[in-house]
Each structure stands twice: as structure tokens, then as C-alpha cells.
Fold this sequence. Notes:
There is one protein chain. By secondary structure, this protein is mainly alpha-helical. The protein has 10 helices and no strands. α1 crosses α7 and α5 runs antiparallel to α10. The longest helix has 26 residues, at 53-78. It comes from Vulcaniibacterium tengchongense. Residues 8-68 form the HTH tetR-type domain. Keywords: DNA-binding, Repressor, Transcription, Transcription regulation. Pathway: Amine and polyamine biosynthesis; betaine biosynthesis via choline pathway [regulation].
Amino acid sequence: MPKRGIQPVRREQLIRATYATIDQVGLADATVAQIAHAAGLSAGIVSHYFGDKNGLLNAAMRQILRDLKAAVARYRGRADDTPRAQLRAIVDGNFDQTQTNRTAMRVWLTFWAASMHQPELARLQRANDHRLYSNLCWQFRRVLPPERARAAARGLAAMIDGLWLRGSLAGGDFDVAQARALAYEYLDHQLGAGA
Length: 195
């Protein structure tokens, strides 16, 4: 009989091993056996907790989305309640180290590509896109007319994703400070134009 409380530990081990394996060999070449080996567990454990490789990938994407949500919430919790401060906090959360380290960036790129072919991953990606847009739009609407707020939110969401994507593909370290500065400049321009 398994020890009480071991399931979350094993699930976490397997999810982190999935990240590491994708980072090393990519999604296409990652096998359940490699992931289990990286976690120091048997391949049967993957089936027990996740069903199959797709179930494990789904759980891994859910975890990276939870990490993103937690990072954004952490920055927003520390920020003033002004629209500018809250918007900057959303930018900061998206460029947090949990989202911009080498492994996280490779995992995100893998999931984005896989979401074009796997309906469950596509659903998770759409939910993530909607959450970002909705949070940005809510803050912009505090100071801009609705249509302008929607356009500003679409633009900032695209800028966050674009800066992140360019940074991930550039090789080397991601210049988080530069990405934040560019996003801040865009949002300050939108807020200044609306004043």
C-alpha cells in the first residue's frame, strides 16, 4: 500500500522530469521510459498517475500554467492598485524567472507547437491566452474607453508573447530587463495616449 501523501511528490517528480527530458531531447524524442528514468521511477508509475505520455504532457502543461499564474499573482499582490502598476505586474509575472529560464522556455515552445495538434493542449493554451487578455483588458478599461482598452490589451498581449518568443529563439540568456522595458514603454504610451 502506498504511503500517504506520496502521490503529489511522485507526480511532481514526473512533471519536473518531463521538463528536463523535453529540454534535453525535445518532445518528439522524449519517451515515457526516459522521463521515468530521469525521475528515478518506473515507467509503470507514469501509467498509474497519468495514463500515458499525453496525460503526462497535459499535467506538465497545467503545472507550467499554474507557475505562470502564481508568478503573476505574486507580482500583482506586491503592486499598487493603480492600472499602470497592475499592468506592469502582469508583464513582470510573464517575464518571471520561472517563465524565462532555459528549461521553461523550451517546454513552453514545445507545448505551443504541440497545442496545434493536440486538442487538450490547445484548450489549455486558449485558456491561458484568454486569461492574459482579460487581465490586461480589465486594467486598461479602468482608464481607457472600452474599444481602446481592448486594442491596447491585444497589443500588449502580443508584445509580451512576441518578446518572449524572440528571446527564447535568440539563444543565450534572455534579456528580461530589455523585454520588460519595451513592454512598459508600450503600456505607458497606451495609458498616456488615453489620458
